[in-house]
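Table 4 source record.
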Amino acid sequence: MELVAFGLTGGTTLLLRETIRRSAPDGAPNQFPSGHASLGFGNLTLSNRNLDYIPMSDKVRLPIQAGNIAYAAVLCWARVEARGHYPTDVLVGAALGHFINAFIYDAFMGLPESKNFGISVMPERGGGIVRVSFSY
């Protein structure tokens, strides 16, 4: 599922780049949103969620997770400082990467069985049905 999340993040980033076609400050074409930011924050999201399920002390887990966040943030800032992106390029890329990877993780790997909420999608001829269910 994580490979699907990476592929979906990269594909969505490329699709948006080809659709929007905004150049970078250094003149490079099609740089919105930032691929570095979307993949970096996607990796951050999956890494930190996986770390939550590894049996280890919080004294070890939390510094690793903070390091992941710092690494992704520095990666984004470096792209802005190198004039490879505008700040909005990396902000949108980071949000995109986090959202897609969090959604895939929660939908297929991270939700415990005891949750009282569900979403299902059923394709039908000429459209489809999205069903949201709550149990109490």
